UniProtKB/TrEMBL annotation:
GO terms for molecular function: guanyl-nucleotide exchange factor activity. It is found in: Cytoplasm, Cytosol; Membrane. Gene3D superfamilies: 1.10.220.20, Arf Nucleotide-binding Site Opener,domain 2 (1.10.1000.11). It comes from the Eukaryota. It holds the Pfam family Sec7-like_HUS. This is SEC7 domain-containing protein. InterPro entries: ARM-type_fold (IPR016024), Mon2/Sec7/BIG1-like_HUS (IPR032691), Sec7_C_sf (IPR023394), Sec7_dom (IPR000904), Sec7_dom_sf (IPR035999). PROSITE patterns: SEC7. GO terms for biological process: regulation of ARF protein signal transduction. Residues 473-658 form the SEC7 domain. It is a peripheral membrane protein. One of its GO terms (cellular component) is cytosol. Keywords: Guanine-nucleotide releasing factor.
Length: 1322
């Protein structure tokens, strides 16, 4: 027997066996115990028996191979048994088993004729199976068989022939079995869930192979599927829609105490996850399926994410992470909404601890993805219309990782590990870049007007695109600053937009509109007043503002709520009229139906809805409007006709049950409602897709800069509070990562971090405990000399402690703020301080009503204003307690202010009080102010401390106090204290130096012009001149800043050893500005050159009066005469002066460079008395002149290698030529002292080497250099002078003649015979 015949006979035998089994079960008596015979026809339909018998008659006489036989011939009889209403459950189970066997044997495949019809018929029959109610066990057996058969049908080779309806029916039937099994055995339910999961895997595994058709791009919900390719995208869409709907189930408690909706939601999420994992990015090729994810799925995920169990939230987060991996190009807005309303909301909304842990875990999972943090920063943090997702995520991790006392909890450890992962990710990617790639400038400027709302796609030119992204981030930061100014003064806010080049000139109404629309924390009342103003420009802004909304798909009250959420509706009727008119026109143009015939109808109904809202929700209105009255009031408003009654009734009930919220609060809304979701979907259709990008060194540096403050504080706090060695090692690794990042323009951050960590050792803190030192000993970070101090360690520690105190820097250590109780003082002052220190009125009431009333009466009789102005009579302790209370109140007592207005007013008021106290107690300023400064440091370490407006108000107030102290001649002993606090404030938030530049410059200029003789300390002059250079660098402040500096340097009486070094730094900062004027630069450099005369005078006076250095030491609090001599040595000053002019010689403009070279020559000539010693002279040449020539030559070579840089190359060549001429003149001028040096030969070779370098200078493709024409003349001049002075002589005992001969022969051979006619020595 052949193999084929054996197989055919086997199929016939199998079918015969199955037919016999089905007939046997059908013929079995319903009740075998009766003994009564029943004919088969009495138990079922005779046609079913006849079809089975007919099939049996054909089994062993087949006319063709079974694979070519229509499968309906041998499957239909079994399907009839399954569909029959009279067949017992046992027979149905046997028939299902028969079908299962036929399918498993693969009797037919997709190429068999009739396979498509029989597969769809099988699905219809099995899913429509009717069971006689017998016993639960039999029913469960049948349902198990149904699940097995359906799963096998989907796995069968011919399953590709199933149509979309059949596939959807299979999935729906399986889910019904899962639902019905809830009250049955656990095995059936588990089997049903497993089968459902398997079906989803089969269906969506095939999705990447399905081609896109025209139906997917149409609005139709029905697909014209005439092809024979089987099920396709429509079934995938319908099934996905069904799975999404399972997330929106009603909550029912089951017998196990779990809610049914939780089980179903979790099950649905598991299936959705499988579909996404198997389909991958192929979902993006199918628009309708992609829209299901954009709209249905994400809407449910965000809605239930913040209000679900930990299990469901965990699955939701996993689902979003999977979508991010495959489809993030198309979910930019949805992903931001998920972070805003779920991941960033759950941890901060007082949710249960388990939910918070899940949310933090999800955040950590996201930041662990290699490119998530940089993509989040570029897509959200650098876009003015989005939330700062990366920055808020980093701050959230800092908040949860920050220790709260005791050992670290699991959630703190998890958040800390995520934060450290961010550090490592940024550092590793920064270091990955090729070292030859320049890191670029760390500063970024808005060079011109560029619409901040316009996006452009990523460019191939990475440098250009990175610059664009960084400018957008700066624009966003400026917009937030403008918003802060706007809330205080709307004109100042809009003027700041203009100054920052965020709006055009003349102004563009769209820029104003988008500023109002997307800037967070704006005062909504001020926005509403602006939009309602009758000015023509304001009306244009209102129109553009309204155009930012999309009302498609919204009913009127939903659209009106959405519109009024963006601002507070003004109270003036005319302003309301203008605003509602703009809204009505927009809504009418975008209405989804034809209910309204004109915008006037919309306008009237809007007014009516606002009046209804006031009527229904104002407690002062006693008699409320009824539904009938509302409908009657709105008759005939629609072009003379009535609006549909159902429409008006729906609006009435919507307003009556849910008031239109008119609030002044701004920021992210508390929850995602339907109207906001419609806005999101409408906006997602027009914005740029999610930008995929890699790390760039400049972007990585900016990313860390955004979270540097809280990150450093958290890292230090964890290091301080943990005892676990593993966590300590992670802290040190994080410190290394931060140092790798900080090398790109964040050195201050690294310095502060190291300073903070140093307090845990005995290096900067002589009072460190043994435990703190032990932490670093375990990590092998302490040298042996620290672990075993010598006998004089106390002295060393004391000096280090003094140095630490004198630094005056900002410490970002993470000490938990001390919440020590204020000392209660007796009398009125003690009572007042006690009341101020209370958090709320409720806390005051807890004291007891009588005591509270007594305190209030005392305060009323205090005359508070006089208390502060006459505080000079207070004891020292009371003055300190009062100041501490006010300073803590200005910082919010460690808590967030409820509104920006409250914060602004509170901080301003508190600093006015501090100023009043200070001015009243100037006679004892040195006693109380050091403690006040410690209070500043303490509040700066609050986790929720906001440096703006605290430091902004503080620095302005402190500058006024400084002027008062100067004017009163009471600055002695207080100068360092006040400037230490001033420096602290701008280091808290350096941006205030830009926002307050005009006011600060006015104060600084007044100090320099009116009180220069009263500044006696280094810290004072350093602070004043640093503020002058920083505040004077802006276009609007440049003239005044330069004028002040020139005035100071022109008066030799006020140019002292104390301020000379800082004057040089300030002068160089002005000259280095891009927008500086050439004539001002020339004047500054002339003054710098002439100051060399002053250095000579100081040098002479030092020799004639050796005690001058000691007197200077006492004035500046330097501990030793040697240190004073080194710092105030005129030679050191000259070196610094030369270094400054050397740097200026590399400026962009040729006239500035050339004048710097000439000024340098002048300095050397004027300072001849200082440089008379060979050592001083040679060192000055090496450090300044030689270095300048080397730098200029290198710069010229760099330009020569660039394209289109001939002008720059020739310009730099001219400066280099001039510098060589200056070198020659200076060398000849100082020839005698230089020749007396034992190192003269080496110095002379250095000159010749530079002559040789310039002689061989090449300009690449820009032609020949002109310098080689000059070098021979310079050499001739030098050699002849040396021979004239007999420094270069044929009879000399050294080899200088031979050395020079060979060098000249190498550099300029034509000069050899002319300069050395005698030749070499014989």
């Amino acid at each position: 027997m052949t193999k084929a015949k054996r197989k055919e006979l086997g199929v016939s035998c199998m079918l015969n066996t199955e037919i016999g089994a089905v007939l046997a079960v059908i013929r079995r008596a319903p009740d075998p115990n009766t003994g009564i015979y029943h004919h088969p026809d009495e138990n079922c339909d005779a046609s079913i028996l006849q079809s089975l018998k007919s099939l049996r008659a054909l089994l062993f006489n087949p006319q063709q191979e079974w694979r070519t036989v229509d499968p309906s011939l041998y499957l239909s009889p079994f399907l009839d048994v399954i569909q029959s209403d009279d067949i017992p459950a046992a027979a149905t189970a046997v028939a299902l088993q028969s079908i299962l066997k036929i399918l498993r044997l693969g009797v037919f495949d997709e190429k068999t004729p009739g396979a498509k019809d029989v597969m769809n018929s099988a699905v219809a029959a099995i899913t429509g199976c009717r069971l006689q109610r017998t016993n639960p066990a039999a029913e469960e057996a049948v349902m198990m068989r149904i699940l097995q058969v359906l799963a096998l049908i989907m796995r069968h080779q011919a399953s590709v022939l199933l149509n979309d309806d059949s596939v959807c029916t299979v999935v729906n039937t399986c889910f019904q079995v899962v639902q019905q099994s809830a009250g049955r055995g656990d095995l059936l339910q588990r089997n049903g869930r497993y089968t459902m999961h398997e079906l989803i895997q089969i269906i969506y595994w095939r999705l990447p192979e399905i081609e896109v058709n025209d139906w997917e791009n149409s609005e139709s919900d029905t697909e014209d599927n005439t092809m024979d390719s089987g099920y396709g995208i429509r079934s995938a869409i319908d099934i996905f829609h069904f799975l999404c709907s399972l997330l929106n189930v009603v909550e029912i408690m089951d017998s196990d105490g779990l809610t049914t909706d939780e089980n179903i939601q979790h099950f649905a999420l598991v299936l959705i996850n499988s579909a996404i994992e198997l389909s991958g990015d192929s979902i993006g090729k199918h628009p309708k399926l992609l829209r299901k994810i954009h709209d249905d799925l994400f809407h449910h995920l965000i809605h239930y994410g913040a209000n679900s169990s930990p299990l469901v939230l965990s699955m939701i987060c996993s689902t979003v992470l999977n979508i991010y991996h495959f489809l993030r190009r198309s979910i930019r807005l949805q992903l931001e909404a998920f972070f805003s309303y779920v991941l960033l909301k759950v941890p901060s909304a007082g949710s249960p601890l388990q939910l918070q842990e899940v949310a933090i875990e999800a955040v950590v999972n996201f930041v662990r993805q290699p490119l998530f943090i940089v993509e989040a920063y570029v897509n959200y943090d650098c876009d003015p219309t989005f939330r700062n997702v990366f920055e808020d995520t980093g701050k959230l991790l800092c908040k949860y990782a920050f220790p709260t006392g005791g050992s670290l909890t699991s959630i703190q450890v998890q958040a800390f590990e995520g934060l450290v992962g961010v550090f490592h990710n940024i550092a590793d990617n920064i270091d990955k870049e090729d070292e030859s790639v320049p890191s670029g400038t760390h500063l970024v400027e808005i060079s011109g007007y560029r619409p901040f709302w316009e996006e452009k796609p990523k460019e191939e030119n990475t440098d250009t695109w990175v610059d664009y992204v960084r400018v957008r981030k700066l624009q966003k930061r400026k917009i937030l600053i403008a918003g802060s100014h706007f809330n205080r003064d709307d004109k100042k806010g809009l003027e700041y937009l203009k100054i920052s080049r965020l709006i055009s000139d003349p102004p563009d109404p769209k820029a104003h509109a988008l500023f109002f629309r997307y800037t967070p924390r704006l005062d909504k009342t001020m926005v509403g007043d602006y939009l309602g103003d009758p000015d023509d420009f304001h009306i244009q802004v209102l129109k553009e503002f309204t155009n930012t909304f999309e009302f498609s798909g919204m009913i009127l009250d939903t659209a009106l709520r959405t519109y009024l959420e963006a601002f507070r509706l003004p109270g003036e009727s005319q302003k309301i009229h203008r605003i509602l008119d703009a809204f009505s026109e927009k809504f009418y143009d975008q209405q989804s139906s034809d209910i309204f015939v004109s915008k006037d109808a919309v306008f009237v109904l809007c007014y009516s809805l606002i009046m209804l809202n006031t009527d229904q929700h104002n407690p002062q209105v006693k008699k409320k409007m009824t539904e009938e009255e509302f409908i009657r009031n709105n008759r005939s408003i629609n072009g003379g006709s009535d609006l549909p009654r159902e429409y008006l009734s729906e609006l009435f009930h919507s307003i009556a049950t849910n008031a239109i919220a008119i609030t002044n609060q701004s920021g992210t809304p508390a929850e995602m409602n339907p109207s906001r979701w419609i806005q999101l979907i409408n906006r997602s259709k027009i914005i740029q897709p999610f930008i995929l990008c890699d790390f760039d060194r400049r972007i990585g540096r900016d990313m860390f800069g955004a979270i540097a403050g809280p990150s450093v504080a958290t890292l230090a706090a964890v290091f301080e509070h943990t005892d676990e060695e593993e966590i300590l090692h992670e802290c040190i690794e994080a410190l290394f990562s931060i140092s790798r990042i900080a090398q790109y323009g964040l050195e201050d951050t690294l310095d502060e971090l190291l300073s903070t960590f140093s307090k845990f050792t005995a290096l900067l803190n002589p009072y460190a405990t043994a435990d703190e030192t032990l932490y670093l000993k375990r990590l092998k970070l302490l040298p042996q000399s620290v672990l075993e101090p010598e006998n004089d360690s106390d002295t060393v520690n004391s000096e280090l402690q003094d140095e630490r105190v004198d630094r005056g820097g900002v410490s970002l250590s993470a000490r938990v703020p001390k919440v020590a109780h204020l000392r209660r003082t007796s009398g009125i002052m003690g009572r007042f301080v006690n009341i101020l220190s209370m958090e709320t009125v409720e806390e005051a009431l807890n004291l007891g009503l009588s005591e509270f009333e007594q305190n209030m009466k005392i305060i009323q009789h205090c005359h508070i204003g006089s208390i502060f102005s006459t505080s000079s009579s207070l004891p020292d302790d009371s003055l300190l307690d009062l100041g501490r209370c006010i300073i803590f109140a200005a910082a919010g007592k460690g808590q967030k202010f409820s509104t920006l207005v409250e914060e602004e007013e509170t901080v301003a008021f508190c600093w006015d009080l501090i100023s009043s106290i200070t001015l009243a107690n100037m006679h004892r300023f040195s006693k109380f102010w050091p403690q006040y400064h410690e209070f500043f440091l303490e509040v700066a370490q609050f986790p929720l401390f906001s440096p703006i407006p605290f430091s902004e108000k503080a620095i302005l107030c402190l500058m006024k106090m400084c002027l008062k102290l100067l004017a009163s001649n009471q600055l002695e002993g207080a100068e360092e204290l006040i400037f230490k606090s001033i420096n602290l404030m701008w280091r808290m938030e350096k941006e205030i130096l830009d926002t307050c530049c005009e006011s600060l410059l006015q104060s600084v200029s007044k100090i320099i012009k009116e009180y220069p003789e009263k500044l006696q300390t280094q810290l004072g002059w350093m602070s004043v001149l640093n503020l002058l250079s920083v505040t004077g660098r802006h276009h609007e402040t440049y003239d005044q800043g330069v004028e002040t500096l020139i005035g100071l340097m022109s008066d030799e009486f006020h140019l002292t050893r104390t301020n000379y070094s800082y004057c040089i730094d300030c002068a160089f900062s002005f000259v280095a500005l891009k927008h500086s004027r050439v004539e001002c630069n020339v004047k500054i450099m002339d003054l710098l050159a002439e100051s060399a005369n002053l250095l000579v005078e100081w040098y002479r006076s030092a020799y004639s009066d050796p005690g001058s250095c000691m007197s200077m030491a006492s004035n500046t609090s330097i501990s030793s005469v040697e240190e004073s001599t080194r710092i105030y040595n005129p030679v050191s000053f000259f070196q610094k002066l030369g270094e400054s002019l050397k740097k200026t010689s590399l400026a962009r403009r040729e006239e500035v460079r050339n004048h710097a070279v000439i000024s340098l020559q002048k300095c050397f000539i004027l300072a001849e008395d200082i440089l008379f010693t060979p050592m001083n002279c040679i060192n000055s040449f090496y450090n300044v002149v030689f270095a300048m020539i080397d730098d200029l030559h290198e710069k010229m070579q760099q330009y020569s290698r660039r394209e289109n840089a001939e002008k720059e190359t020739r310009s730099m060549e001219n400066t280099l030529k001039l510098s060589m001429e200056v070198l020659t003149e200076l060398y000849l001028h100082f020839l005698m002292p230089i020749s007396e040096s034992p190192n003269f030969r080496t110095f002379w070779l250095g000159i010749l080497r530079r002559m040789d370098t310039c002689m061989k200078a090449k300009l690449g493709g820009y032609g020949e250099s002109n310098i080689p024409k000059t070098i021979p003349d310079l050499l001739r001049k030098i050699v002849e002078r040396m021979k004239e002075k007999e420094i270069l002589s044929l009879e000399g005992e050294d080899d200088l003649w031979e050395t020079t001969f060979y060098q000249i022969q190498w550099i300029a051979p034509a000069l050899t015979d002319e300069l050395f006619p005698q030749g070499l020595k014989k």
